[in-house]
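Sanity check. The docking grid for zinc ion depends on where the pocket ends up, so I'm generating a full predicted complex first rather than guessing from homology. Inputs follow.
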Amino acid sequence: MKSIVKFTLFSAAVLFAIACTSAPKTDSNYEAFNRYFTDSTLRIDFWHSGNDTSENFAIAKYINDGPWAGRTAHLLDKWELGLYFIKVIDQQSGEVIYSQGYNSVFGEWQTTAEAQKSTQKFMEAFRIPWPKGNVTVQLEKRDANNNLQPIWNFNIDAKSIVAEKRFTDNRAKLTKVMDNGDPKCKADIVIVGDGYTANDTAVFNNDVKTFVDAFFGTEPFLSRKSDFNVWSVFAPSPKEGINLQEADYHPENILGTSFYTFGIERYVLSNNEWTVKDYASVAPYDFLVILMNTNKYGGGGIFNLYITAAAHSPHNQYVMVHEMGHHIAGLADEYYTSDVAYAPANTKVEPWEFNVTALLNPDSLKWADLVAPGTPIPTPWQKDEYEKGNTSVLHDSTLVGKVGAYEGGNYLSKGMYRPEVNCIMFSKNKRFCKVCTRGINRVIDLYVN
Ligand SMILES: [Zn+2]
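Predicted complex below; grid placement will be based on this.
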């Protein structure tokens, strides 16, 4: 049973300053963090509701979600990725003191056919460093031109935040899988399991190893291994496995993940984001991995929310790494020949993602600096052959590793372009393209001091 605790500025504040011993410019890097924030995490749970044309927000509760493990030296999310973007604004100075882009389940659902027929509500939650002074939280969303526009804001009076205590469950077992240092100075991954019973701890631990081997077996994560910590949280589900049909939805798996999200069999999300984040918060984390005890192919990955991956399906390691591309760096799917539930992008508007472009102006390609001189833009490839099912064209030695602008990507065959002929975000390829690799590195850099 959760209890309500009223935190004052003084009881919530931690009286020592944050600094990473490994940081080259220790004091200046953390000056802003120490001025504006305490060492705790403020989680704001809210309902995100609406339909295809409207959306509404209602705060459900505040939670003191444990010590802050997020960004401390780079408080502003300078890449401005994501469909949604949170800004924490200091009321005294008017300055933005923390920002973070993300995607949400509602944001995906809003573009499905179902949203044209019904209004629904979804659980959602932000986690921000605990403010010392009064702040305004402003949520922004992309408009039709992909510019961020304010859609919701609310004030937080730092002296009178009424917050629940951090979630606890005595059955949840925390394991430090890989320790490279202070979570405030590293990118922290927490791995939680769904559909594992109390008898399945060895299965879960083995699946954690499968994830770690796949993730750190792939560049750029391999080269950045010392920038990460990995934690696992095991909590038993009453019944083994993962639910299949939302129509017959009686979740017995503890995190509520289910296949057939938005009617797509292989797409797996949870309908209970707050519970997912409750279990995740047993560990300090920036990125959240849900491994599912099933051999049925499927998964999902949402920028700054979580990934889901079937731990025992034939392509399990590929799914894990591909979904981490979405989750960490907001990478777009580069494929365009598989069914998806949501409406494709508008080819008249430049996508915000690092790795796809509408190529509205071929002279200002956003990854132009990675293109070798003389490479034609758009870049010819055997698109017709590929669409007939000949995947060998993806291994054309004259094209592999050559950055250009290849038509077909982001669920669109025409008018949308990807950086290389092949990439983990395009097919069951072994490597990220150079543009995706750079995007991932840019984001990891924000978390590492
Ligand atoms: Zn790519």
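Relevant for the grid: The two ends are 37 Å apart (CA to CA).
Also worth noting: Residues 209 and 342 are 33 Å apart (CA to CA).
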